[in-house]
Amino acid sequence: MNRHLNDAGLFANLERIAHAGRDWHGPTFDIFNPSTGELLATLPDMGVAETKDAIDRAVEGQHEWAALPAKDKSAVMRRWHQLIVAHTDDLAAILTAEMGKPLAEAKSEVSHAAAYIQWYAEEANRIYGETISAPSNDRRMLVIKQPVGVVGTITPWNFPASMVARKISPALAAGCAIVLKPAEQTPLVAGAMFVLAQQAGFPTGVLNLIYASEGAAVGTELCTNQNVRKISFTGSTEVGRLLMRQCSDQIKKVSLELGGNAPFIVFDDADIDEAVDGAIQAKFRNAGQTCVSANRIYVQSAVHDEFAEKFVARVAELKVGDGFSPGITIGPMIDGHAIEKIEAHVADAKAKGGEIRCGGHRIENVGTFFEPTVLTGITHEMRVAQEETFGPLAPIIRFEDADQVVREANDTIYGLAAYFYASNLKRVWRVAEALEYGMVGINTGRMSSEAAPFGGMKQSGIGREGSRHGLEDYLEMKYLCMGGI
């Protein structure tokens, strides 16, 4: 047992939620700390049968939850929010132990998760219909909105607390019941959040958790079971395509937040020091393991050398290590495969003329650590410019003019997030509107908020999470025409 979890009171309750009140005699799987390799927990390895049971429970819970007045649903969600805030330290310790991110980042993520729950607790009271002017006096026409039904959700390993909250909070506010399958690498914080949800008073069957060591069978059941009316998934574009195909026979609603290849553009009229700060945030938060991470850093020729010099100096100051250690800013990669991908991108760039300005190697130690790395001399023929690295690797690409960089930034199947730094307002507006991305950060390296719509264009996904728009994805619009009035 990780020593930092000894005092995490929620951790002791995970067995209860994992077993769902039953003795478990089936297969199990282990959860390890990526920083130390230490065994954290052994969980039941659930499959199709357990997923079907969870869906059946959700169908029963759905009716009770949807029938509750909005103010009552809001009250339960507010209690859940308060419990998460009160247990921030416990949740952050569990998160850091299973995922590896620095403890300060873990606490920030838990706060972000709580913010989504609070936001949608309030939005539960703001589901409005409308009346329509009828073409004759003997009828009335109106629109009501109702919950879509049971929602199957699959969350990723890189933000295992905030992604749970961001997905299920709007569904709960709309009146939907949930079947959640968290990532097999980081399921523990989701379990702890569900312990708190039980304490908050959600009716039986509203929240259902599936632990599984692999997602294919569970995902197929969620997509093909006719009692699941919607799928919400965050993960790779490849898996998103598969889930979308599996949902197509039933014309099932989907929300997909998929891969990215975010450009980070620095124009020659930018404040270079602020751009460096923003690039550090956008690239190295969560060790670069974010879907909105700056994957390609474009810098205009006139300021290229100045930016590169200052950026490399800042990157060299980042401290890598166990997320529980003081002063750590970069935690481990989630597993060895992540390191192998970074190494492949570095080797490909070097072979094609790229230069390593700092870092470039795995750290031979316990755990899965890689040095924060900066490459220059990058061209679009290199893999690092074409593929999402998902690690602490920052490639810098020189460009000449705005038309060129916008064209190159848009030359990808992805369209999730983009960033750029500039001061000329004419340029700001033109570039912001020309970038084919669902989210654009202008003179900032961080833009996520529960109040804003999160989602992408092209093959980065469908739908939006967060904001009032996120609630609409979990509601069905029903038109009522009343004659004989």
Automatic annotation (TrEMBL):
<dbReference type="InterPro" id="IPR029510">
    <property type="entry name" value="Ald_DH_CS_GLU"/>
</dbReference>
<dbReference type="InterPro" id="IPR016162">
    <property type="entry name" value="Ald_DH_N"/>
</dbReference>
<dbReference type="InterPro" id="IPR016163">
    <property type="entry name" value="Ald_DH_C"/>
</dbReference>
<keyword id="KW-0560">Oxidoreductase</keyword>
<keyword id="KW-0558">Oxidation</keyword>
<dbReference type="GO" id="GO:0004777">
    <property type="term" value="F:succinate-semialdehyde dehydrogenase (NAD+) activity"/>
</dbReference>
<dbReference type="Pfam" id="PF00171">
    <property type="entry name" value="Aldedh"/>
</dbReference>
<dbReference type="GO" id="GO:0009450">
    <property type="term" value="P:gamma-aminobutyric acid catabolic process"/>
</dbReference>
<dbReference type="InterPro" id="IPR050740">
    <property type="entry name" value="Aldehyde_DH_Superfamily"/>
</dbReference>
<dbReference type="InterPro" id="IPR010102">
    <property type="entry name" value="Succ_semiAld_DH"/>
</dbReference>
<dbReference type="InterPro" id="IPR015590">
    <property type="entry name" value="Aldehyde_DH_dom"/>
</dbReference>
<feature type="domain" description="Aldehyde dehydrogenase">
    <location>
        <begin position="27"/>
        <end position="479"/>
    </location>
</feature>
<keyword id="KW-0630">Potassium</keyword>
<feature type="active site">
    <location>
        <position position="257"/>
    </location>
</feature>
<protein>
    <submittedName>
        <fullName>NAD-dependent succinate-semialdehyde dehydrogenase</fullName>
    </submittedName>
</protein>
<comment type="similarity">
    <text>Belongs to the aldehyde dehydrogenase family.</text>
</comment>
<dbReference type="InterPro" id="IPR016161">
    <property type="entry name" value="Ald_DH/histidinol_DH"/>
</dbReference>
